[in-house]
Amino acid sequence: MAEGENFLEELELIRLSQAGNLDALEQLLSNYEKAIYNLTFRYFGNHHDASDVGQEAMIRIFQKISDFNGKSSFKTWLYRVVTNLCLDELRHRKNKSTSLDEMKEIGYEPTSGFANPEELAENAERNQMIQEILMQLSEEHRTILILKDIEGMEYLEIAQIIGCNMGTVKSRLNRAREAFRKKLINQPKYNNLIERRVQA
User: Fold this and answer.
1) Same-domain pairing of 71 and 129
2) How far is Cα 105 from Cα 98, in angstroms, rounded to an integer?
3) In a 10 Å sphere around its CB, with 0-12 CB exposed, 13-18 middle and 19+ buried, how is residue 116 labelled?
4) Which of 42, 49, 84, 119 would be a feasible disulfide site paired with 115, CB 3.0-4.6 Å?
5) DSSP letters along 61-129, please?
6) What gap in Å lies between CA 157 and CA 161, rounded to an integer?
């Protein structure tokens, strides 16, 4: 199906959902189920919490679907709802524990479908380390890194999600990346990965 047709189909699903059509809402949410899970997992770092909060996010989207007014894309609106829910949950628990090139710079690389077992193991270790560092960052820094460097969202989209201007997004992103790098270089796992790369 062409991109334009997908867009029109989504608009129709949104319209029907706002009119109370539960089948349309279920279909609409199924299109974003994986994205919601990935987003919640980055905040909580484990499957159980990610699933629980993801389910709660779907309920909240159901409750708030009538608030969507089309001023942003539906995806941006949905990410705002899910992000706010994650932050609310983190605050409730009081448990604070870029671009692709930017993430490569700090050690993240997507897993290749043609990677050999050793590369797959190294990628899994690197991704786990990134997740552990994310969990140590402040809510503000974690949010901006998830949205920009992991989800690959544009500055304008992020500004709409977190409710600030693009200048604030850029400065907050720079501070978050610096905080991430400082924690990364102090990770023994990171030094081990670098050593293995040099020896390879």
Assistant:
1) no
2) 10
3) exposed
4) 119
5) HHHHGGG--SSS-HHHHHHHHHHHHHHHHHHHHT-----HHHHHHTT--PPPTT--HHHHHHHHHHHHH
6) 6
Task: Calculate the CA 169 to chain-centre distance.
Answer: 15
Among all chains, which residue has been given the structure tokens 């043609």? 114
Same domain (yes/no): 165, 193 = yes
Q: Name 134's Cβ contacts closer than 8 Å, sequence gap at least 6.
A: 42, 45, 142, 145, 146, 180
Domain end: 95, 113, 140, which one? 95
Gap between the terminal Cα atoms of the chain = 45
**Which pLDDT does position 114 carry in this prediction?**
45
In this prediction, residue 161 carries a pLDDT of: 94
- 106 DSSP assignment: T
Q: What's the average pLDDT block by block, 10 residues per block, for the chain (200 residues)?
A: 69 93 93 94 91 93 92 93 93 56 50 50 73 91 93 93 94 94 76 51
- What's residue 186's pLDDT? 79
Mean pLDDT score across all residues of the chain: 81
Domain count within the chain: 2
